[in-house]
């Protein structure tokens, strides 16, 4: 009898959850348009994460007209951080940044299961969405089918012990608050206060404040937040029975909305169950792999995959992605300031630009000129950003970015080994790229 009660509860909850998420595909997707600096991770001379320097950078970034920050992207040296460090940096950024700005956290790992776990942890740390890079170690086998499966694969982790909690337990705590308190939280969030500040003012846990804000961002309401239910012991047979029912319900709902069921891998749950929206990340300079256009088009149909950061610089490809996903509420971000104007001209809605760590106001100005149709002025500014951008990306990389940050009053500092500082001649060339364009 207990198994049947749990089974019925899960059926009702899953049908409601899947129906709501898919039904609101067009109107409730997260808007990611705007400029994001992929922030650097400062380190001490001993190689530890320098949180004091990070806080100083965040104070400056918080006052700029960025849509948000990308945390633990390629420029954050994420491959050199431990899993705990990656999550801690995201948590620190979310606490320090005004809640009106998005935190897009890099959660990509080589395996699908590791990516799922990291995505869940980033969501718990306060990320608004995740940036998931293409896996590339087994490059020869990363075809469209493998990549589509990677990005849509999500298996529901059901409790098998009496002490565990379901993924919505944080959300459920918001039920304990009055409607007036929830609305006050949203009002303070819109006024630009951080989650920590809101929590202290109202005497509410920061995690609860974050849960209410994320629910409001997604559904524009603070009402009817989901219940987690009491933890239960479920037998392996019961888990299998419930999982099969979840897949069946999901396939029925997707079929009703005209979405092909073949995007649902046979043994997994879909990305719809990911705690927060997903942004695809194609960066062939690092992975030697372009996420194929046909895969992007298919993935764009998923309601929880909201866009792509394309760092390849191929404007023809970016144009084709914009064109082929035009019927979806799917947004394209340029992955570099070097081709930002060109990307805007073919329909991109923003950019994740390493140069914005140094020339943030100027990159935002370029975006504003493009969106307002002032193409002549935009072209003149774009010309002056190309060489500095190339210097801190393809030419000299992260050591150059951190050095330029030091020059412009930010906390860049050292890189984590095995990355090495610039040689003297490289340093001179870097300074010339900025000076000759009027920035130093």
UniProtKB/TrEMBL annotation:
Q: What family classification does the UniProt entry report for this protein?
A: Belongs to the DapA family.
Natural source organism? Hemibagrus guttatus
Can you state which reaction this protein catalyses?
(4R)-4-hydroxy-2-oxoglutarate = glyoxylate + pyruvate; (4S)-4-hydroxy-2-oxoglutarate = glyoxylate + pyruvate
- GO MF annotation list: (R,S)-4-hydroxy-2-oxoglutarate aldolase activity; 4-hydroxy-tetrahydrodipicolinate synthase activity
The keyword tRNA-binding is annotated on this UniProt entry: no
> Which residues belong to any copy of the Sleeping Beauty transposase HTH domain?
171-222
* Sorted UniProt keywords: Lyase, Schiff base
Q: What is this protein called?
A: 4-hydroxy-2-oxoglutarate aldolase, mitochondrial
Q: Specify whether Translocase is a keyword of the entry.
A: no
- Describe the subunit structure: Homotetramer.
Annotated GO CC locations: mitochondrion
Chain's role: Catalyzes the final step in the metabolic pathway of hydroxyproline.
Q: What InterPro entries is this protein classified in? A: Aldolase_TIM, DapA-like, Homeodomain-like_sf, HTH_SB, Schiff_base-form_aldolases_AS, WH-like_DNA-bd_sf
Pfam families noted in UniProt: DHDPS (PF00701), HTH_SB (PF25787)
GO BP terms: namely: glyoxylate catabolic process
What's the EC number here? 4.1.3.16
